[in-house]
Amino acid sequence: MDAPRSRVALVAAAKLYLGALRQVLRDPRARDPVGLGPLVVAGHRVALRPPRLSDAPLWREIRLRDRQMIESFWVTSPLSWTERHTDVCWVRECLEMRRASRAGRALPLVIEIDGQFAGQCNLERIDMYSRTAEMGIWLDSHASGRGVATAAGALLLDHAFGALALKRVTAPIRMDNVATARGAERLGFRHEGTMSGFLDVGGRVKDHELWAITSKHAPTGGFARALATQHVVAIPARGRRVGPARRERASFRLPRSKAVLVAVGRYYLRPFRRIHLRHALSRQRGAYSRLRLGPSAVSGAQVVLRPPRLSDAAAWREIRLRDRALIEPFWVTSTQSWAHRHTETIWVRECLLMRRAARAGHALPLVIEIDGQFAGQCNLERIDAHSCTAEMGIWLDSKVAHRGVGAAATTLLLEHAFGALRIHRITAPVGKGNVRAAHLMQRVGMKYEATMVSFLDVGGQRSDHDLWAVMSEHYALQPSASPDNRKPRVSTSPGRDLIGGRSEAVT
User: Fold this and answer.
1) Which Gene Ontology cellular-component terms appear in the entry (predicted)?
2) For residues 53 and 58, what is the distance between their CA atoms, to the nearest angstrom?
3) DSSP state of 505
4) Among 505, 498, 504, 506, residue whose Cα is nearest residue 125
5) Burial of 500: CB neighbours in 10 Å, binned 0-12, 13-18, 19+
6) Each residue of 231-267: pLDDT tens digit?
């Protein structure tokens, strides 16, 4: 792969790779979440704090006791409910949550009532690029119905829209989960639509309602203060002790089990094990670099999807600058000018970030090539291996926009995602007013599901976006969107990834 011959580009590549070293040298505790609260609910002290390994016994006890209330709404697993709630499982989950928190991808918190573990309240899928996140909560049945979940949600939302400066928080809720929907509505969430086949829970793929709240709809003074005004909670004065004294000081005690110690040891020894996996990693990198989807014949031309190259910089810059008027209104806002966002250095950095995301399995960034010439990008982003979902984005050179190239490229990507990658559901956010992108989504078999309020900051303002989606089983029943009405040939070479930033469908 030839790199652009520029000293600036080489410096950009060096800075990116040295970033990993800078991350190691930073204080690992810098990103540890802090406790939130307390609030007083019916005379009890409710607070949020980071999870501890020593929470395992209470977590297991509550989850096993409340199995009938939780399991039908929880992600399906081949393991039994008891096997999913051992000390080892909690330790692994706790350590993974801590890693995600320090990476800025999540904010895992535990609900405490009078100093005792009583559930979890998390922010997941945090995307600081688009300032969005997803909220999830579960609570001990012995504490339900008293406003505890509402108080915990208020504390978390105040932190999300305050310290984290998020613009939008969503909550996917199963359609028959009436109690949770009412709780979300009480906090100010608004129903935006229904997501078909969103998640495999309780042993079956279920539709979920999309609830969301934005910073502009947050109450003045914050959610906790609004609840205090309604006399749902009370905000204690600083320094005042509320509820019974805590019996146990915060600690890092491990559950006493040989299996738990082995799990912890494996987790912390994982970086050293990577030294012995260089050969396997090199083969994985080679597989992605050789990935090729197509060709698909469109109007006498051959459309192919392939990984981006550093040598694409000149063509990428030329097209993006020429088509600025068509792309910029639907692209993520930046403080830099359009010209400064499309330099050789920027492409090198973006290309390397995309490659890193692909190797990590978070995305699948691909370039649209027509007869060997760069003509746009078609990416899978936000790939979630647990829920088997992903998000699609595409932009195309205006010179080939009306020849069916967009439909052919999208079809190639969907075929590969539903086939080799075993993705179950793919979504595409389309900006309001982007008629051509909406038409493309409809042409390839996607269906409109919801309007996401204040979804993304594009074209200089926070704007609404339509949510389009398609599931693998529905896509398989539809005719191909390619001009000759035949399924294009798709390579099954392994390759996964997603771009660092967020894009939408732009054609």
Assistant:
1) cytoplasm
2) 11
3) B
4) 498
5) middle
6) 888 988 765 554 443 434 444 455 556 666 777 777 6
Domain with CATH 3.40.630.30 in the chain: 30-256, 292-476
| 8 Å CB contact between 207 and 175 | yes
CA distances to 160, 316, 362, 418, 459 from 354, rounded to whole Å, are 27, 15, 9, 21, 23
**pLDDT tens sequence across 335-377:** 899 999 999 989 998 998 898 889 888 899 999 999 999 999 9
* Cα–Cα distance, 71 to 233 (Å, whole number): 29
Under a CB-based contact definition with an 8 Å cutoff, are residues 350 and 38 in contact?
no
Write the burial class of residue 300 (CB in 10 Å: 0-12 exposed, 13-18 middle, 19+ buried).
exposed
Detail the DSSP E strand segments found in 60-203: 110-113, 116-127, 132-139, 168-174, 190-201
292-476 placed in CATH 3.40.630.30: yes
Q: 313-322 and 344-359 are packed helices; what angle lies between their axes, rounded to 10 degrees?
A: 110
Which token pair is 415?
């075929």
Asked if the 30-256 domain carries CATH number 3.40.630.30, the reply is yes
